[in-house]
Amino acid sequence: MGTLLTTNLIKAMQLYNQKQLPKAAKLLIKDKSPCKDSLKLLMMVEFNLGSYVKAIIAAKKLINKTDEKAYVKDASNIIRICSQHIKDKKMELEYSEKSVCCDSSEDNAEAIYHLLLLYFHEKMFVKVEELAEILLQWQMFRAPVSFILIELASKQGNKNLLIKRLLKAPDHYNEFNLKQLGIIIDFFINTELFQLADTTIKFIIDKFGCNTTSLKLSLLLTQKDTTAAQHYWQQQKHTLSRWDASYFEAKLAQLRGDYDKEFSALIDASKAKKSELTKSDNKDEPNFIELFNATLPKLTKALQPNNDSYGCKNTFIMGFPRSGTTLLDNILDTQDNMLVLSENDLSTHLMKTFKTFKHYPLDIYKLNTKETNLLRQRYLQHINEQGYHIPESGLIVEKDPHLTEAIPFIRRVFPAAKLIITLRHPLDVCMSCFQTQFISNYYNNHLVTMDDIVNRYINVFTLLERYQNELSIQPHFIRYEDLITDIKGEMTKVFNYMQVIPNDVYLSFHQHANNKFVNTASRGQTNQPLYTSSMYKWKNYDKHLVHYKEKLSYFIEKFGYNF
Questions:
Q1: Helix (H, G, I), strand (E, B), or coil: what is residue 1?
Q2: How many CB atoms lie within 10 A of CB 534?
Q3: Which pLDDT value is given to residue 2?
Q4: ∠ CA 349-527-497, rounded to 5°
Q5: Cα dihedral 540, 543, 548, 549 sign
Q6: 3-state SS assignment for residue 420
Q7: What is the DSSP letter of 395?
Q8: In whole angstroms, what is the distance from residue 438 CA to residue 430 CA?
Q9: What distance in Å separates the CA atoms of residue 150 and residue 145, rounded to the nearest whole number?
Q10: Cis omega before residue 408 (within 30°)?
């Protein structure tokens, strides 16, 4: 039998080399007691045939057959690649780690770099830094890893580290692609490294000969050189996409105080953006507002008052984009005894974990104690993976304006959590969203046209009202207008609600915020002293908002505002 197996293996290898893959597979499958070399060959044959599930099965059998690192590494790499094809992220991560565990030398550099990308995508930033140290030893990975480390510093909000890494970026310009250089220019602009931004724009023109109009306009507008920006836009607007051209036209009109022209340009920009979103292949997420409506009756009994803090004291800041959530989190971030996390996708990650064993949000009420503890542990673990340390006080503040609809989930996992809703005049909120070029994602794609924004606002706050009435959830509300006119009075209420004794550093929060890199649309505003110029800006567009006033009238009155 042994001689026959050897003969079959030799024949199969010959067929493999002759690219007669189906025949090789058929011969190898007949082997009822395959050796490790037969399994390795079968794995490669199935892989090259594009039979990814069969290749994974053969690779796993090989790993079970031997603990020799060379075989385990090769099998793990095949599973890593195949799991990409079948879109199994969990398997992809598991076997990428197994491969690197077997071999962390330059011979396995591709797998190490792939694992770094997976860690970055999963926001496991501590592990990204660890792998980056290994990869930076090797010339071919210095540029891509340096770029990832720049993005990493921005996601961590570490402005000083971001600038330090950006200053080294020009060393790799010849190896960066066009998209990477565009992102680096955006970072230069937003960290006020204007000369480097301008130099890099010229480099892109020389190397790629492509259009850099939008980058140049962003630079001029951030430098507040309105005259130059207006002149440049007039010269180059024909080179811009409809979306960009209309958006910059709106920005320039706003700076001139021509609000009619601005509103008209924003309408055109939103139509162009909406058209692009319609053409995209991105599948829409389920409508969680509708799903929560369906599951609310079942949640009533599940969300009973509970003071279980599991050793940590969570506060969640939410509301609606452009309502003051970033301002509040920057004020709270001045306090040494709490960890403040701004839009780090922690709760989103938690929902993703929940979806691995339950339907979200329909099964929230089914969570048992064991599952709840698992989710809490995963939440704390993910905080540590991002490189943050939970203070001795256990105070964790997470800010994300999009979490409002997910309050039942948050309350189910963290029953003692404090919930803070920031409010701002509904017309100001909606108008500010309309003026903002949000990064495209599921939530922001509901904030494109003015109709979209107003409908989203009404849906979210109607749902919140149901949470209050039907689930007895009573958050603390703070109005943006009250906060900026009476920071001490309003923050006293917030600190009392959180049961925190503050220090007075929060009164000069803007100085503290100057050391942070803000990853939201509020960038450039939070490092300034409090100002009132953003109050009631909707009045500049009064005649364009008649229809929306009527639609929002209930919430305008409910939240104590006027028309």
A1: coil
A2: 16
A3: 43
A4: 60
A5: positive
A6: strand
A7: E
A8: 13
A9: 9
A10: no
Terminal Cα distance for the chain, rounded: 90
Residue 378's CB is within 10 A of a number of other CB atoms, namely: 18
Residue 138 above 70 pLDDT?
A: yes
Closest-CA residue to 541 (of 432, 402, 410, 466): 432
Tell me, what DSSP letter sits at residue 318?
A: E
Burial tier of 87 (Cβ tally within 10 Å: 0-12, 13-18, 19+): exposed
Which 3 state secondary structure label does DSSP give 418?
Answer: strand
Out of 46-60, 120-134, 330-344, 528-542, which region has the weakest mean confidence (pLDDT)? 528-542
CA distances from 241 to 77, 180, 237, 238, 354 (A): 42, 20, 8, 8, 40
Q: What is the CA radius of gyration of the chain?
A: 27
C-alpha–C-alpha distance, residues 45 and 54, integer Å: 10
Could you tell me if 182 and 197 are in contact, meaning their C-beta atoms sit under 8 angstroms apart?
Answer: no
Residue 523's pLDDT is: 52
DSSP assignment string, 7-70: HHHHHHHHHHHTT-HHHHHHHHHT-SS--HHHHHHHHHHHHHHT-HHHHHHHHHHHHHH---HH
For the segment 68-99, what is each residue's pLDDT rounded down to a tens digit?
A: 999 999 999 999 999 999 999 999 999 999 99
CA 181 from centroid of its chain's CA atoms: 20
Strand-strand pairing, 313-318 and 338-342: unpaired
Would you say the pTM of this structure is higher than 0.85?
yes
The owner of tokens 């720049």 is 150
Instruction: Say which residue the tokens 């958050």 belong to.
Output: 475
Q: Is the pLDDT of residue 284 over 70?
A: no
Closest CA to 478 of 527, 420, 525: 420
| Structure token pair of residue 523 | 């960038």
Q: 186-244, pLDDT tens digit by residue?
A: 999 999 999 999 999 999 999 999 999 999 999 999 999 999 999 999 999 999 999 99
Whose tokens are 């009404």? That residue is 458
Distance of alpha carbon 358 from alpha carbon 434, whole angstroms = 36
Dump strand ranges (E) for 221-334: 313-318
The residue type at 214: S
140-144, 265-269, 276-280: range with lowest mean pLDDT:
276-280
| CA–CA separation, 401 and 494 (whole Å) | 17
Hey, what are 28's tokens?
């190898």
C-alpha to C-alpha distances, 150 to 120, 158, 220, nearest whole angstrom: 12, 10, 23
Classify 561 as helix, strand or coil: coil
